[in-house]
Amino acid sequence: MSTVPATLRTVEVSGAEALCLLRRSRLGRLVYTQRDLTVLRPAAHVWADGRLLVRTSGPATGGPATATYEVEEYRAVPGTGWTVTVSGPAEVVTATATATATDAVTDGIRQRVPGGWTPGPQDTILRIRPRTVTGFRVARGEV
Predict the structure, then answer these.
(1) Which of 55, 72, 93, 140 could be 83's S-S partner, Cβ–Cβ 3.0 to 4.6 Å?
(2) What's the rounded Cα separation, in Å, for the pair 22 and 45?
(3) Tens of pLDDT along 15-45?
(4) Model pTM score
């Protein structure tokens, strides 16, 4: 008797679990539209006070009105992982607000928005107010 091989499947997670996964990570991708083109930039982030603070290269002024941020973690050997997507209105944090944005206080713990992880300046900090938060786990399952 042969057994059916395990396959990969995706399972949607709750918004609360998706935010927990997002908080565990520090790196992701910022996606927005600029001059009718889709822009995708590597970025670093921190979750603070119900907002997502994202440090990236990009326009220091006139940032996107809305943005999407995606974070993921995949493990090739066991074939599992997860992905979280956050979308909502975005604003560039100005120089006068930078101290507040880069040293965010969450649950009484001061967190610093991490530096960028690509070569070159990473001077732009965006604050995204999530309107949608979605998450999926990739898991092994039987067909």
Answers:
(1) 72
(2) 9
(3) 999 999 999 998 999 998 888 889 888 888 9
(4) 0.75
Domain boundaries along the sequence of the chain = 6-142
Residues 6+ apart with CB under 8 A from 90: 32, 63, 64, 65, 66, 67, 126, 127, 128, 129
Nearest to 128 by CA among 53, 18, 57, 61: 53
pLDDT value for 109: 37
What would the two tokens of residue 132 be? 């949608």
Burial 121-137 (b: 16+ CB within 10 A, else e): ebebbbbbebeebebbb
Fold of 6-142: Pnp Oxidase; Chain A (2.30.110)
| Sign of the CA dihedral running 43, 93, 133, 20 | positive
